[in-house]
Amino acid sequence: MKKIYTILSAVLCLSVGAKAQRTVDLQATLTAPVNNTTFNSGQTVAFNAVIKNVGTTTFQTNDTLYYGYLIDGTQITFNIGGQSVTTFGIVNRTLAPNDTIQINKSFSLTIPATLAGKRQFCIAIRPLNRGIDSMIDNNIANNASCDSVLFDSNPLAVGELEATLVENAVTKVYPNPAQSYANIDMDLSVNTAVSVRIFDITGRMVIQTNEKTYGKGKQTISLNTMNVQNGLYIYQVVMDGQVSAGKLLINK
Q1: Is residue 60 part of a domain?
Q2: Does the pTM of the predicted model rise above 0.85?
Q3: Of the residues 15, 45, 124, 179, which has the maximum number of CB atoms within 10 A of its CB?
């Protein structure tokens, strides 16, 4: 369990300072796939979990819950709109003690021959607040949940495992590098509430859009970056509480 959490933390490249003022205790429980589920190449698979606040402190709206999926301790890379993503996030959610959050995702898997056989499939979580009111999870033992799964012994593909998200997706961010503006293209499976946040490398938010509902299909959000200094930034596109993130370079 400790190995799984350490791997996820390293991939996220996130750290919490020693001056943490607040602690939470979030528990991850994998609900799908269940033990001994068989995965076949090309199959659409549900990856579901329940996150419960088992502590006494509220998980606040300015906190972020990061999570990722692992096979035998190695994090899965997902193909989302042509972009490689290893970590997802949930924001703008309050989680009081004993409250739960449902995570429901569906993916189409392409399974390489090297993964044939029984494997350990896990979800691992990392709650974080990068603001002044720093927060940590004081019980990492329940931050991961695993089941044994079986990959088809006759997979259809060679190479790396590929998992393609079957839901809302950011398909393109351009121009990147950006000068006076940046466009974010999305492909939405249903009518979706969307907002965008952009952070500098210190975690300071430099752009935030109001949440707006966009219709099903291809949509574009344009951001004014005229007043943003040159540098590397992280964008977060929040779609019905689920986060798609990536890098944006400003170079005027």
Answers
A1: yes
A2: no
A3: 124
